[in-house]
Amino acid sequence: MAEKIALVTDSTGDLSKEYVEENNIHVLPLKVVYRDKEYLDRVDIQPDQVYERLDQEIPSTSMPSVGEVIDLFSRLIKEGYKEILSINISSGLSGTFNTVRLAASHFPGVKIEVLDSKSISMGIGLLVQEAASFIKNGGNLTGAVERMHQIRDNLKVIFVVKTLEYLKRGGRIGYVSAAMGCLLDLKPVIAVNQEGKYFTLAKVRGRKKSLEKIVEIVKEAAEKNRLRLVVMHGDAKEEAKCLFEELKKITRISEIRFGEVGPVIGVHTGPGVVGVAFYPE
């Protein structure tokens, strides 16, 4: 009989509250930090509240503490879980993965696998959804980890922002040139590389063309394989809906969903982020 496996992730996976509750996923919230108070991501603060306050204060973010992760793992073990799989935000973008790994070392008698998603937002969410399905269908921990590696190696996250200022300010700009966009309205189409860091996938002129470029990239990928895909946005619902409708026309997308990035991601991208996450079936 397979051991009882707990599935853990962090709040940057941007999964809906309904999905998390229905699939018994345990979420470690990151924090949005203002001068006078800090808020748990998607618990005490929602995305629109961050955007509404940006003209007054641009907050910072912080990861869960080792103690908070230990508390969660202790609770799960008390609930009867013998094994834990934790899928976390890219180590190239946050220290969360290393914090969770450190916390896991406090439980030598429990089998805990901590996976660096090397991804962000619904890129992580897609991995968690696949893991939840795998575990629900009777898969064991070793098989789940192998499946996650297989998907992660083929997972793409591509997005555009209205300004690079927020990525630059938060120190998350990676290999994207911070100077871009200052001249000729050049817009980088940003992706996440194998290190789990941002880089410029393409350069186009203007917002409209940057969104069209995302459609072009997805079409090229769908020519090779059937895709599972999520469209996501932060304070750009109408543009994201238009992108969603355009992508629905691609026949080789077997599953397409729509989502919103959470407060922590919104702090680093600013309002107006639109993107996709996808992987081949």
From TrEMBL:
Q: Which InterPro entries match?
A: DegV, DegV_C, DegV_domain_contain
- UniProt keyword annotation of RNA-binding present: no
SUPFAM superfamilies this protein is in?
A: DAK1/DegV-like
**What domain of life is recorded for the organism?**
Bacteria
* Coiled-coil stretches: none
Q: Which UniProt keywords apply?
A: Lipid-binding
State the Gene3D superfamilies in the record: 3.30.1180.10, 3.40.50.10170
Which molecular function GO terms apply here?
lipid binding
Role this protein plays: May bind long-chain fatty acids, such as palmitate, and may play a role in lipid transport or fatty acid metabolism.
PANTHER family, from UniProt?
DEGV DOMAIN-CONTAINING PROTEIN DR_1986-RELATED, DEGV DOMAIN-CONTAINING PROTEIN YITS
Q: What is the protein name given in its UniProt record? A: Fatty acid-binding protein DegV
